[in-house]
Write a structure and sequence with these properties.
Blueprint lengths: L3 E5 L3 H12 L4 E5 L2 H10 L2 E7 L7 H11 L4 E6 L4 H10 L3 E4 L7 H27 L11 H14 L5 E4 L6 H10 L8 E5 L5 H9 E2 L11 E2 L1 H4 L4 E5 L6 H13 L1 E3 L6 E3 L3 E6 L3 H6 L5 H7 L2 E4 L10 H15 L9 H9 L5 H14 L27 H15 L4 H8 L3 H11 L5
Parallel strand pairs: 1-2, 1-3, 3-4, 4-5, 6-13, 6-14, 7-10, 10-13
Antiparallel strand pairs: 8-9, 11-12
Helix pairs in contact: 2-3, 3-4, 6-7, 10-12, 13-15, 16-17, 17-18
Length: 445
């Protein structure tokens, strides 16, 4: 969609002529005959491009570029002049103008130039909006839940955010430790610098060291050139080490050095490098017990646990389940082009009673499954995973076998009879699926 072009020129005939030419290309135009009038229109309209004469009655058009950029940084400006000089052209570009054209030469140039300027203006605006969304998404206000346990954890995290203190986040898998780490970073004084995350359980000890500290060319076979480690990538910002309990003792000693004096040595190097990085760490292990058993360095544990935050499990904050369920319902409904899906109280009640071993991550997966398997009647309790009903009392008003049968049948319909995919979605083995198909007499899918 083409945007608005503001034309500023004291010659009304030129304004009208440019306006007709530009509007034929599908753009909307506004006209002003003075700089003051132009700035007023700029403030009150969603202008993308300004075409301004250099000689205006009240201001020099080249100087006007600076004022326009102060008001709306993503607006692109093209200066027009009857008598162009190299000095004026250089100054216009230096002030932030997109281009500088001499009147009379502009007839063939103005429209292609206009499209290039519009592309740049739109790209800059989109990049700004995307960056703004990515930062607001990680503020504490975006963490969903009103339970006391969650609010207490958020309050602690808020207080430590403004400092450079090392933080240790404790909690079961799926409780949102990385979300908290991102929020701490984005509400810290380091928010303009990188946030870098590393899962320590995903690498062998040797590879983890290379990822963390980088290496020099020739450090090992295949190391053909120097490589920056994540420690360098996070310089000035925050490094989040998830599953820190999986790091081996030798590497723990090197991490301790970073915490003590902000220095490290690359693999294969002899030179010490300085770094300015804040460390946030997370684990689902009891590091104090591991330290007592010799599985984790005691000195590192005490350095990491300067400020500890324990994140509540989903079972500890069940009052937040309706809010979370509705949030993920909206997310996956949009993703699957089913914007009108609703969740009823009966289904919410079942979700609240469930024992959430996988915490928020499990709930998110369940909501995605419910959306995929929804029908014309909306979300259905029969589309829940089988383990929701494995431990239900026989007095429960649901017929458990009937629910399981309906659920298997629904998933088979969804996969068009693909039993391998069905067993994956159900979270059961292929042999178990065949046994249940035979047991329940499920033939049509």
């Amino acid at each position: 969609m083409n945007g608005i072009v503001l034309i500023i020129d004291d010659e009304k005939k030129i304004c009208s002529l440019l306006s007709r030419i530009i509007e034929l290309e599908g753009f909307k135009t506004l006209q002003a005959n003075t700089g003051k009038e132009g700035l007023k229109l700029l403030k009150n309209n969603e202008v993308s491009i300004v075409i301004s004469d250099v000689k205006l009655p009240d201001v020099n058009g080249v100087a006007l570029v600076k004022e326009i950029k102060l008001i709306k940084p993503f607006v692109e400006i093209v200066n027009l002049t009857a008598y162009g000089t190299i000095a004026d052209g250089v100054l216009a570009i230096k002030n932030g103008a997109f281009d500088y054209l001499v009147k009379g030469d502009d007839n063939d140039k103005i429209i292609p130039l206009l499209y290039r300027a519009m592309d740049k203006a739109n790209a800059q605006q989109n990049a700004f909006e995307l960056n703004n969304q990515s930062t607001t998404r990680h503020h504490f206000d975006q963490i969903i839940g009103q339970s006391k346990a969650l609010k207490e954890a958020i309050e602690l995290a808020r207080k430590v955010s403004k400092t450079d203190t090392t933080v240790l986040l404790l909690g079961e898998t799926g409780t949102g430790k990385e979300v908290f780490a991102q929020s701490i970073h984005h509400e810290s004084n380091r928010k303009a610098k990188p946030f870098v995350a590393l899962n320590c359980s995903g690498f062998s000890p040797e590879l983890l060291e290379s990822e963390l500290f980088g290496y020099k060319a020739g450090a090992f076979t295949g190391a053909n050139k120097d490589k920056k480690g994540l420690m360098e990538e996070a310089n000035g910002g925050t490094l989040f080490l998830d599953e820190i309990g999986e790091m081996n003792l030798d590497l723990q000693a090197k991490l301790l050095r970073v915490l003590e004096n902000q220095s490290f040595i690359k693999v294969g190097d002899t030179q010490t490098q300085q770094v300015n990085v804040r460390i946030l760490a997370a684990t689902n292990k009891d590091l104090k017990v591991d330290a007592a058993l010799g599985k984790f360095r005691s000195d590192l544990y005490y350095r990491l646990s300067v400020f500890t935050i324990v994140l509540p499990t989903l079972n500890d904050r069940k009052s937040d389940i309706p809010l979370l369920a509705k949030h993920y319902l909206k997310e996956f409904s949009i993703k699957n082009n089913q914007p009108d899906l609703k969740i009823d109280d009966q289904l919410l009640s079942v979700l609240e009673k469930h024992n959430w071993k996988g915490n928020i991550r499990e709930l998110k997966n369940v909501m995605e499954r419910l959306v995929i398997l929804s029908d014309e009647n909306g979300l259905n309790v029969t589309a829940l995973p089988i383990d929701f009903f494995e431990f239900q009392s026989q007095e429960n008003h649901y017929n458990l076998q009937q629910i399981e049968k309906q659920h298997i049948h629904k998933v088979l319909l969804h996969t068009k009879g693909n039993k391998t995919e069905t067993s994956r979605l159900l979270g059961i083995g292929l042999t178990t699926l065949y046994r249940k198909i035979e047991e329940y007499g499920i033939n049509e899918f």
